[in-house]
Amino acid sequence: MSVDEKTVRRIAHLARIAVTDEEVGPLGAELNAILAFVEQLDAVDVSGVEPMTSVLPMAMKKREDVVTDGGRADDVVANAPETEDNYFLVPKVVE
Amino acid sequence: MSSPNELTLAEARDALKAKRLSARELTQAHLDAMAKARALNAYVLETPDRALAMAGASDGKIAAGEARPLEGLPLGIKDLFCTHGVTTTAGSKILETFEPHYESAVSANLWRDGAVMLGKLNLDEFAMGSSNETSAYGDVVSPWRRNGSDARLVPGGSSGGSAAAVAARLCLGATATDTGGSIRQPAAFTGTVGIKPTYGRCSRWGTVAFASSLDQAGPIARTVRDCAILLGSMSGPDPRDTTCADLPVPDFEAAVGRGVKGLTIGIPREYRVDGMPTEIQALWDQGAAWLKEAGATIKDISLPHTAYALPAYYIVAPAEASSNLARYDGVRYGLRVPGANIADMYEKTRAAGFGREVKRRIMIGTYVLSAGYYDAYYVRAQKIRTLIRRDFEAAYADGVDAILTPATPSSAFGIGEKASADPVEMYLNDVFTVTVNMAGLPGISVPAGLDGQGLPLGLQLIGRPFDEETLFATAQTIEAAAGRIALPGAWWA
Amino acid sequence: MNASVDPKKLIKGGLHDWEVIVGMEIHAQVTSRAKLFSGASTAFGAEPNDHVSLVDAAMPGMLPVINAECVSQAVRTGLGLKAQINLRSVFDRKNYFYPDLPQGYQISQYKDPIVGEGEVTVDMADGTTITVGIERLHLEQDAGKSLHDQDPTRSFVDLNRSGVALMEIVSRPDLRSSEEAKAYVTKLRTILRYLGTCDGDMEKGNLRADVNVSVRRPGDPLGTRCEIKNVNSIRFIGQAIETEARRQIAILEDGGSIQQETRLFDPGKGETRSMRSKEEAHDYRYFPDPDLLPLEFDQAYVDALAAGLPELPDAKKARFVGDFGLSAYDAGVLVAERASADYYEAVARGRDGKAAANWVINELFGRLNKEGLTIEATPVSADQLGAIVDLIGEGVISGKIAKDLFEIVWTEGGDPRALVEARGMKQVTDTGAIEAAVDAIIAANPDKVEQAKAKPTLLGWFVGQTMKATGGKANPAAVNALLKEKLGIEG
Ligand SMILES: [Mg+2]
Ligand SMILES: [Zn+2]
Predict the structure, then answer these.
(1) Where are the beta strands (DSSP E) in B361-417?
(2) Is B182 noted as a catalytic residue in this protein?
(3) Phi/psi class of residue C23: alpha, beta or left (left: φ > 0; alpha: ψ in -120 to 50)?
(4) Which of B41, B73, B491, C258 shows the smallest number of beta carbons within 10 Å?
(5) Is B456 helix (H, G, I), strand (E, B) or coil?
(6) Residue A41 above 90 pLDDT?
(7) Are B218 and B256 in contact (CB under 8 A)?
(8) Nearest-10 crossing angle of helices B224-234, B9-17
(9) Could you give the CA distance from residue B380 to residue B71 in angstroms, rounded to a whole number?
(10) Is there a contact between B424 and A49 if contact means CB atoms under 8 Å apart?
(11) C21: CA distance to ligand 2 center in Å?
(12) A77: which chain B residues are within 8 Å (Cβ-Cβ)?
């Protein structure tokens, strides 16, 4: 499998990263080098093998249904590039 | 007495306890050394006021006879750990002004135990790199140089600032993180000790995520004992991290000096890779010989899926990273580049905020998760992870207590030396360390000698899950046999 | 399920008859105090970003920890839907960018949901019953909220809802009309409210539907569907389906084809329109969330939850029919809300079930409806209504007087028995007193008495006069019997 320029642009858009025309070619080459490197995995027989879903076997911890957080809107928006009345502001979204 | 910053962490602890030294003096000595070492670019942010305030408080505790385990010991914090009220950049432009309103679990544990924060340490951007050349805040320069050369060398990465600062005596020890080798490889490159504990030993809460199923925090310090002391404070259960183990923290320091008598050390044949420098092979053989002399049994073992760990890692880690880094969108914190509309804002912000290596990994991760490729790449890689873990389980079931390998395939290289190469060549740095992350096991890198150019080389020990104690005991045996490596003089000062 | 096509359900196009196929994804907010993966409150109506933890705001290094109660609620719901409960399920990340999605992904369940196949039985108004297949139920995070009309160039983002637990309940495309779809949602809402796992408040958006609509000629394979997003009332669900089906039929009859897309229902304009923002080709790149381990529990946990489930509407309805002799329709009306059913049972206990149903449905519900009140706000308690039913049964008051009494209790309150005493509302059963009244009327109307012999329907007039003379308190049965006897009317 190898990626062409159109795929590079599609992936960049999915990842929301603007790419210039000059970047597309080299990025594609780098991605193809990595994909060629990982291609050796095709040689492994993985039939009947479960994919790893947790690194170590343990039961998932759970929280009680108790309100322990919130009431800190100032902290939440403290680093925001643009806010008003504790709302985050973004360029208008058209639905 | 030489300058207090030349002490090991354990020595400094004892000197403070004996009141031969005050925490303020110790901290000031480090702040002075840091001020003279800016050419190394190990710190992205020095916090002298906070450091002296913390040291002053420690002196009070010591005077009151209330000293805690790390009382008054000055440490550097990798800038991947969120620190309350102190800018945390993750080495990225996208977080240039980010000031967390919370403290990472690992750093909070250190402050709980009385440690002093000197500042935030440089790193590869979002911990993605093996040379500390991807930081938005400049390359870190290794305190090491080749014999007769003043060429600037890399300290390794991604915890390059941590390793360089520890080697240059700019802190007694440092926090670090390891996703594919980011503690052990820079430790090996700088003649320091670094341990990546078992996945789940340290809480990941408050540490900027790179690849969630692989990331694990650990210390870098100048001796095995210092690492054991630091890990004892850094680790422990945390209800805020579902993947953090609910296990008590053993007395790691007590394991140091326990020796290797009766232990079986495995030597995996698959780590004998083509083109490995003979010096590294020789060092590895030497390490096995030292352990044998100290009473261990050496056993040849096979870890048949070793060769697939690195390519599988380069699917799993970027996949997780592509998702973990989606939150950097310019809405709630960090850099925002205005755009004509929301999508334009996202794309411009992320294009300007992320460096080239980070973008490359996000792109690869996005690609391998995308429709039609998920099974062929991601699911297959996770199956191979299962096979890698089974290899280790079989070896341990067969009576092996720890596994000895080289830490890196080479000694440190020059800054810029691999800049033009294809990314895979850089990735090969992690070929010996990455299996450990894939299987979630603990691994330690300990300096074992110098190569022909006078640069340090490290050996790696891999342990059973949650058996860091055996690693400390075994690494200390190597450390003792090799003799502590003399760190470079302060040519930078 | 609905194997043969019922011609009554078909929609008449200009050229052909069409069958509409509907499936639904219901997003139901889980009833819990805290969010699915954080300790922030789920309470409605807070100040902007006040019910937000650093986890909900996706600050760097923040990690999700699952709320155990949300898991229990999902399992309870699964049991209520007679569904397969999966002892092992997995949380996945659904990756996409949106300003009210702080993580850049939604934590959801994709391949391995907590609940698998189940079914819902739905009674239709015409007495028929349909069974709607449930494909799955999974747990996921809600997104935040964007306000678009505060400013000409900016949207305002509030994350109070971000991370609130939702159950997404996916039906099979088993619905064949807007009526069926509305009845299904109504029934599902009833079940959730009985279980206490979702309050079903559609106005607050706590229950909302994505409606998948396609049309086909009967017997044809399934057509291309369109998804109408976030419809937030049962009435609108019906309107949206009708509108969308007609739009698709018009296109197909014109020789066009349907584009699979996401649409929005505009109730004001009565049309559905394409959602441009959702139009972009999506590639959600699902993968298991590495911050969370698989969700595992044992059968004993499920059994304990099953043992604690309340009686559900279907069972209750069957019991009402069996124990109280109610019609299926009346029983259905009574069990639609758990509070109504409880009220009814309190009234019916130890009394005539049919009479109790009659009073609850016709008088009480009628009055509540008129006043726009819910059963919880009724001014007439079950004890009070029960006393009224008793007074009728005992022959103390007539049905007509009972209605007056109900009105007094409704507006003034009080003990019905004492009111009847105090206000002299008792029915006169004393035959002597009734007889006197009857005799007086017969004596005063000899002509009518004559006519009545030939025209027995005049009996009603005499009854009316007698009741008038006794102030409505005479026992009607006694009046009837006496009059028949005295007028010589047979039967
Ligand atoms: Mg959906
Ligand atoms: Zn959903």
Answers:
(1) 402-406
(2) yes
(3) beta
(4) B491
(5) strand
(6) yes
(7) no
(8) 70
(9) 48
(10) no
(11) 21
(12) 332
Using 50, 70 and 90 to split pLDDT, how confident is the model at C481?
confident
Please give the full DSSP string across C244-292, using - where no structure is assigned: HHHHHHHHHHTT--PPP-EEEEETTTTEEEE-GGGTSPP----EE-TTS
B418 is catalytic: no
**CA angle in degrees (0–180, nearest 5) for C203-C208-C213:** 130
The answer to whether B404 and B287 have CB atoms below 8 angstroms apart is yes
H or E element, residue C120: strand C118-123
- Which ligand has the shortest distance to the CA of C25? 1
Return d(Cα B70, Cα B229) in angstroms, integer.
Answer: 8
Q: Tabulate helix, strand, coil % of chain C (nearest 5).
A: 40, 20, 40
Are C287 and B369 a contacting pair at CB < 8 A? yes
Cα–Cα distance list, C465 to C396, C438, C459 (Å): 21, 9, 10
Structure tokens at C180: 């069926």
Half-sphere exposure of A34 (CA within 13 A, CB side): 27
Assess whether pLDDT exceeds 80 at residue B135: yes
Question: Which is it for strands C262-266 and C226-231: parallel, antiparallel or unpaired?
Answer: parallel
Chains contacting C (3 or more CB pairs within 8 Å): A, B
Q: Is B262 exposed, middle or buried (0-12, 13-18, 19+ CB in 10 A)?
A: exposed
* Class of residue C281 by CB neighbours under 10 A (exposed 0-12, middle 13-18, buried 19+): exposed
Burial of C304 (0-12, 13-18, 19+ CB in 10 A): exposed
For B404-463, write each residue's pLDDT tens digit.
Answer: 999 999 999 999 998 877 888 888 889 999 999 999 999 999 999 999 999 999 999 999
Contact B196, B436 (CB under 8 A): yes
Nearest to C24 by CA among C252, C186, C161: C186
Res. B361: pLDDT tops 70: yes
Distances (CA, A) of C173 to C77, C133, C169, C246: 20, 8, 13, 18
| Radius of gyration in angstroms for the set of CA atoms belonging to chain A, rounded to a whole number | 22
Over 60: is that where the pLDDT of C3 sits?
A: no
Element (H, E) at B117: strand B116-121
- Give the active site residue among B92, B104, B135, B182: B182
Distance CA B33, CA C233 (A): 69
Tokens for B42? 């190990």
Quote the pTM value. Answer: 0.92
Annotation says B131 is catalytic = no
Q: B255, B254, B244, B186: which is closest to B220 by C-alpha? A: B186
DSSP assignment of A24-62 equals: HHHHHHHHHHHHHHHGGGGGS--TTPPPP-SSS--PPPE
For chain A, list the domains and their CATH numbers. 5-42 (1.10.20)
How does B304-324 read in b/e, with b if 16+ C-beta sit within 10 Å?
A: ebbbbbbbbbbbbbbbbbbbb
Q: State the Cα angle at C151 between C147 and C154, rounded to 5°.
A: 70
Q: What pLDDT sits at residue B348?
A: 98
% helix, strand, coil for chain A, step of 5 = 40, 10, 50
**Alpha-carbon gap, residue C399 to C389, rounded angstroms:** 9
Closest partner residue to B205 (CB to CB) among C58, C61, C286 is C61
Question: How close C357 gets to chain B, by Cα (Å)?
Answer: 52
pLDDT of A10 strictly over 70: yes
Find the Cα–Cα–Cα–Cα dihedral C71, C75, C76, C77, rounded to 10°.
100
Render the burial of B80-98: b for 16+ CB within 10 Å, e for the rest.
bbbbeebbbbbbbbbbeeb
Q: Does B383 touch chain C (CB under 8 A)?
A: no
Q: How far apart are CA B276 and CA B313, in angstroms?
A: 21
Length of chain A: 95
Residues 6+ apart with CB under 8 A from C333: C340, C361, C365
Residues of chain A neighbouring C275 (CB-CB closer than 8 A): 95
In the predicted model, is pLDDT for residue C21 greater than 80? Answer: yes
